[in-house]
Amino acid sequence: MVPAVSALKSKAAELGFDLCGIARADRHPKLSRLAEWIAQGRAGEMSYLIDSASERLDVTQTLSSARSVISVALLYNTDHAYSSDPSGDGASRADAGRVSVSRYAWGDDYHGVVRARLRALLQWLSDQVGPGLEALTCVDDGPVQERVYAEAAGLGWIGKNTCLINPTLGSWLFLGEIVTNLDLEPDAAGVDQCGTCTRCLDACPTEAFVAPYELDATRCLSYLTIEVRGAVDEALRPAIREQVYGCDICQDVCPWNRRAGTSDADAWQPKDIFRAPKLIDLCHMSDQAWVLALKGSAMKRAGLHRLKRSLAYAAASAPVETRRAALDALRAQPSSHAAVVREAIDWAEKISD
Ligand code: B12
Ligand code: SF4
Hints:
The chain has 353 residues and is an alpha+beta fold. Helix content is 37%, strand content 11%.
């Protein structure tokens, strides 16, 4: 028997999801923006997006019987009082020799945490419905435009910074979905409440927003520090400053995050190395220590070499003594033999001479 939507939402809450809503598995108008965005070159080298573009435009290409998308969100904000520099110029942090790791990567890898709960929700659904159920789960790993479905399911709205913002919880949310053949009563879509605010657009250190709601990913520090495999365009390297992995600036300045909810889940609490990371300490960490630290962390997506490359770029903005010590420490590790790391260290030394 198909469960009542209220029972489904109660089960999602019981499993620890902070939000749950239902969207139709339709071709929502915002989905069509993706093709244009890709054609404009905004996806850069994220070939997985380009290769799966047609499935992303129509979820029934992935599950032909799809009728509904159950969209869920988990809050990952903690009460750890550490954020990227809201002024966007990074001056205070760089002077203190501190660096910023995006808060989504402070704790456990969210893919595993969200997936385990989605599977538990799917198991419950399957127990209720029986053999007629067809469904699949996604968390950042399937050809599904997650923010578009989350907005359609009433979890919030897609803000000018392109993040899904919930009016009560803010935007520090991970999204996930169950795409299913069940015909569930959809929720009302979220309503845009950005108004005239442009703080996110103004704060971005690389001017990555070509317009409100439109991000050129190839300029975003998150893309540059996590996704780009080789050397980052020299013109953009100085903007990295202390953002060594990901970037939270356009969310830190968002007024909807001022009173953002916090989670006390162990999974999201910062590992010791991310509590107040200093450039010099991260550069001194041995390759073996990094390999261990990356295990079970979302940071493993960037891998050792990209991370060391970003640390070298960040060193270029540090005060002279810190810079020299940081680059020496990086060079002392075997990973500095990788071409991308070596080139970044050489560049940081050269431009600061
Ligand atoms: C590729 C990707 C990136 C790229 C590109 C980001 C982007 N904004 O497009 C990069 C590497 C830069 C990135 C960065 C980050 N990401 Co990311 N990323 C993705 C991924 C895999 C696909 C997103 C995508 O398709 N982008 C292409 C654009 C075109 O599509 P879209 O984001 O769905 O945007 C639509 C709307 O903006 C819509 N639109 C809405 N309103 C309006 C109004 C107008 C006028 C117009 C023109 C368009 C428009 O048009 C778009 C087309 O459908 C998703 C997971 C997924 N499968 O969806 C995670 C995802 C979006 N990322 C996530 C996170 C957490 C981040 C970071 C915060 C990580 C970090 N701290 O470094 C940053 C945030 C940066 C930012 N401001 O977006 C979360 C977002 C959660 C949330 N609350 O929104 C997701 C959903 C992963 C997850 N499962 O939780 N990401
Ligand atoms: S995450 Fe940082 S670099 Fe990317 S758009 Fe937001 S402020 Fe700009």
